[in-house]
Design the sequence.
């Protein structure tokens, strides 16, 4: 599965610290994602980048329950294959994503029990999401409202409190209106991290990567206490 064209593999610089399955956004696993994945791989993480577009587009016409099952099974198999690739089954597994990918990461954390997920780093999620890509997804002001859509706060409520969730947000990102509700939905296991001088796209990965790394450390409880950057 990891040899598919939609998958990018970033081997870790030893020793292996954990595995990150990193979901791209609605335009793919693009250059800023690739640069961040490369940076994290050099910190000791096996990073598996995943372009979601084909998976979501190819299943959009299925009935909702069937669509969710197909997508959930595909993501679970990707996670298992990612752990097996570098023999990381006994180390942390983190789901990471940007924008649409962040929403899918939170959805997966709430719906997929195996393999066990340690934490989630959600970069710039919207307040609502869906397992689809439509023309409206490319409009910055549009949030999904159909029967197939879901609230990020509701998903967080249904996620195990053993899974820490870091919301990473550019300081000027206009999608952050639901962040207080998302954080409040997971008291004690959700924290927000702010990236100065950044918007929704997070193109300036030089700024973003160190905040992402700090969020990842918190998710994995490597720091003695939660550290929140910004407001």
Sequence:
């Amino acid at each position: 599965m990891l040899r598919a064209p939609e998958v990018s593999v970033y081997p870790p610089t030893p020793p292996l610290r954990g595995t990150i399955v990193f979901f791209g956004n609605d335009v793919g696993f693009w250059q800023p994602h690739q640069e961040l994945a490369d940076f994290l791989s050099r910190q000791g993480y096996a990073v598996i980048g995943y372009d979601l577009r084909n998976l979501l587009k190819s299943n959009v016409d299925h009935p909702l329950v069937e669509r969710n099952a197909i997508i959930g099974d595909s993501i679970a198999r990707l996670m298992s294959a990612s752990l097996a690739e570098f023999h990381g089954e006994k180390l942390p597994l983190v789901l990471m994503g940007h924008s649409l990918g962040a929403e899918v990461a939170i959805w997966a954390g709430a719906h997929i029990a195996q393999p066990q997920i340690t934490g989630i780093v959600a970069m710039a999620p919207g307040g609502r999401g869906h397992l689809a890509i439509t023309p409206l997804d490319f409009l910055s002001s549009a949030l999904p409202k159909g029967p197939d859509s879901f609230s990020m706060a509701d998903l967080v409520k249904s996620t195990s409190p053993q899974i820490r969730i870091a919301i990473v947000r550019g300081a000027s990102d206009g999608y952050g209106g639901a962040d207080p509700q998302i954080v409040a939905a997971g008291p004690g296991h959700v924290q927000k991290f702010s990236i100065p001088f950044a918007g929704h796209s997070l193109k300036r990965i030089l700024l973003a990567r160190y905040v992402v790394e700090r969020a990842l450390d918190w998710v994995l409880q490597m720091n003695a206490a939660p550290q929140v950057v910004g407001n």
About this structure: Residues 222-231 have pLDDT under 50 and may be disordered. The chain has one domain: 7-219. The beta strands are 7-10, 18-23, 45-50, 93-98, 119-123, 128-129, 150-151, 164-170, 190-195. Residues 68 and 186 are 23 Å apart (CA to CA).
